[in-house]
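Worked example 3 (structure in, sequence out).
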């Protein structure tokens, strides 16, 4: 099992053996954290753990993490409230419980794959128990200047908690979210690298270079061609463990940027999560104001097996440790408590998404970057139609009609998705149960700004 996921870090390896319990973990230098000897001897973790592996200690656990411990209850498993770090489990034919950070490790023993729920702990004696909810209250003040200032401070503290080494990197597309994170990180890092990838002429390449020049980072741009995207698909789908079309499409450029980053740094910052917290999708601007808070909270809770999975898999595929400051629970709680009129804000007669986030960094970034309209990850990188056109050439109409419905009843949405499913099946076989896999909503191209769907069964063709 460990051999299948050693890409997640192979600088260190430890094994915990107890009666009827074995835990093994590997990790990189960039993830090394100080802990007491007793804690280290009994606990393996991915992320920033609580220093007491027990249910009562989890209530104040705000950092992204999963942990597995040998405790007085026997095995103790727990996953952070947002599910930023992955965890899966299943039982072998002999009834043994197995768990791992990626599905491919479990498949070495069993096809009984289940996603361990975020904000949950487990022991064999007590079963599964929810402990963490993403609670959002209402701010006791409504002054936008005060909100913007406190938002910037909260984000700054979250970024500071991510700093691990003197040299770090950031994925820098030049969008608002990645630019904000890079701006805050710049003063914490001695040697700061930034990375962007895209096809020739893609907006992200130009905007990324503009922000990098403004911040004084050591910038790296990777220009890719259609053949590079197609050639990367088998590796991307293997590491991503998904065939969802929009997720794969956005992961290809992310994967190639991570590959580039791994030549220079051991850890990288991502701006993922900003769209969900601050109403970055076009469809949200069409919602009634009173529906926006509930919608944002809903889509934040869907991130764990879609967009955050993309960040995790693309980074760890190359031994990179990803950090996502927007997923810091302090940031999430504060952001969700901000009134919706400051997220979708009418400016000069136009509804501006993420207005309060932009306002919080007014004067700290060039206006051309700060007020840049939202672009989907794969659009900004210029991948919008290349992969769909490749799939059109590779999959016939008859193939699509014949293979569109999967054995579990899911309906594939496009030839592009069938192409990805074929690659997925080559890697992992015909896994009968796919309920652990997240899928994104099926929407028209005109409205395709939608967030992931919580249910793996997508309805509404």
């Amino acid at each position: 099992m460990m051999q299948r996921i050693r890409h997640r870090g192979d600088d260190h390896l430890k094994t915990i053996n107890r009666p009827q319990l074995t835990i093994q973990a590997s990790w990189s230098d960039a993830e090394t954290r100080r802990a007491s000897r007793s804690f280290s001897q009994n606990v393996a973790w991915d992320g920033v753990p609580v220093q007491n592996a027990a249910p009562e200690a989890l209530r104040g656990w705000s950092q992204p993490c999963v942990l597995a411990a040998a405790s007085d209850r026997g095995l103790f498993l727990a996953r952070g409230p947002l599910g930023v770090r992955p965890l899966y489990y299943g039982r072998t034919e002999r009834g043994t419980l197995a768990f791992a950070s990626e599905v491919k490790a479990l498949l070495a023993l069993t096809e009984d794959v289940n996603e361990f729920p975020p904000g949950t702990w487990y022991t064999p004696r007590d079963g599964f128990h929810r402990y963490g909810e993403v609670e959002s209250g209402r701010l006791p003040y409504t002054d936008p200047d005060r909100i913007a200032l406190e938002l910037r401070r909260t984000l700054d503290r979250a970024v500071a908690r991510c700093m691990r080494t003197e040299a770090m990197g950031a994925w820098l597309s030049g969008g608002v979210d990645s630019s904000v994170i890079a701006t805050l990180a710049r003063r914490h890092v001695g040697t700061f690298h930034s990375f962007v990838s895209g096809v020739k002429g893609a907006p992200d390449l130009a905007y990324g270079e503009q922000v990098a020049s403004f911040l004084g980072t050591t910038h790296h741009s990777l220009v890719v061609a259609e053949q590079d995207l197609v050639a990367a698909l088998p590796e991307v789908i293997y590491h991503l463990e998904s065939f969802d079309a929009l997720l794969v499409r956005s992961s290809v450029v992310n994967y190639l940027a991570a590959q580039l980053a791994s030549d220079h740094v051991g850890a990288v910052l991502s701006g993922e999560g900003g769209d969900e917290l601050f109403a970055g999708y076009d469809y949200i601007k069409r919602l009634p104001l009173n529906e926006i808070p509930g919608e944002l909270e809903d889509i934040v809770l869907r991130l764990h097996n879609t967009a955050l999975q993309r960040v995790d898999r693309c980074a760890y595929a190359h031994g990179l440790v990803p950090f996502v400051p927007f997923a810091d629970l302090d940031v999430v709680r504060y952001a969700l408590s901000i009134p919706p009129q400051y997220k979708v804000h009418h400016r000069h007669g136009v509804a501006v998404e993420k207005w309060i986030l932009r306002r919080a960094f007014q004067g700290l970034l060039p206006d051309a970057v700060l007020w840049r309209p939202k672009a989907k990850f794969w659009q900004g990188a210029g991948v919008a139609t290349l992969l769909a056109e490749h799939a059109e050439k590779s999959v016939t109409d008859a193939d699509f009609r014949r293979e569109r419905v999967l054995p579990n009843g899911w309906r594939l949405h496009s030839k592009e998705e069938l192409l990805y499913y074929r690659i997925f099946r080559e890697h992992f076989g015909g896994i009968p149960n796919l309920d652990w896999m997240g899928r994104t909503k099926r929407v028209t191209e005109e409205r395709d700004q939608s967030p992931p769907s919580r249910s793996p069964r997508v309805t509404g063709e």
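Notes: The first helix runs from residue 37 to 42. Residues 443-461 have pLDDT under 50 and may be disordered.
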